[in-house]
Amino acid sequence: MKKYVVSLPLVLFVLFSLNIATAQNADFAFATPSIETSKVAYHAEYSVKSNVDDVLSEIREYLDGKIEFPEVYLDFYNSDVTVVASFSVAESGELENISIKKGSDKMLGNIVVNELNKLSTVSPVLENGVPVIKNFNIPVVFKVQ
């Protein structure tokens, strides 16, 4: 038996040459797969008419008139404090699930929760004329005077 010493570049060259010859002489060839994308012929924009901004303004106006930085707490704070209130407006306009987000000041947060509980109802949120349940997160800023 004869032993042949074959180098890797020579083997690669032969395989590459055979691949090209096969692709030129045959009905098939090695090809990279392609992905076909379908085009959308028409895209209609869907817009929702909502009064969310009006309801939000109604809540803000109420809170602006009711909430002040309590003088008792002025010794504890030397800058403005923001408390984030979270609640839902039901289809009837009632405020539900009123809470304060984590990280907000609890003492001042209780003031906001109490005021929102006093408000109890607002105009319901309407989307395309239909009342819906909407969740809100509202920052309330207590300004140090």
CATH first level of the domain at 52-142: which class?
Alpha Beta
Tell me the strand order in the biggest sheet: 2-1-5
Structural class label: alpha+beta
How many DSSP H or I helices? 3
3D architecture notes:
The protein is built from three helices and five strands, in the order ααββαβββ. It starts with 7 loop residues before the first helix and ends with a strand. Helix 2 (52-66) crosses helix 3. By secondary structure, it is α+β, with helices and mostly antiparallel strands. It has helices spanning 8-25, 52-66, 106-119; strands spanning 81-89, 95-100, 125-127, 130-132, 134-142. It has a domain at 52-142: Fusion Protein Consisting Of Minor Coat Protein, Glycine Rich Linker, Tola, And A His Tag, Chain: A, Domain 2. The strands form two sheets. It has a three-stranded antiparallel β-sheet, with helices on one face. A two-stranded antiparallel sheet has the order 3-4.
Helix and strand layout, with pairings?
Blueprint: H1 8-25, H2 52-66, E1 81-89, E2 95-100, H3 106-119, E3 125-127, E4 130-132, E5 134-142
Antiparallel strand pairs: 1-2, 1-5, 3-4
Task: Describe the structure in brief.
This protein has helices spanning 8-25, 52-66, 106-119; strands at 81-89, 95-100, 125-127, 130-132, 134-142. With 145 residues, the chain is of the alpha+beta class. The protein has a domain at 52-142: Fusion Protein Consisting Of Minor Coat Protein, Glycine Rich Linker, Tola, And A His Tag, Chain: A, Domain 2, CATH 3.30.1150.
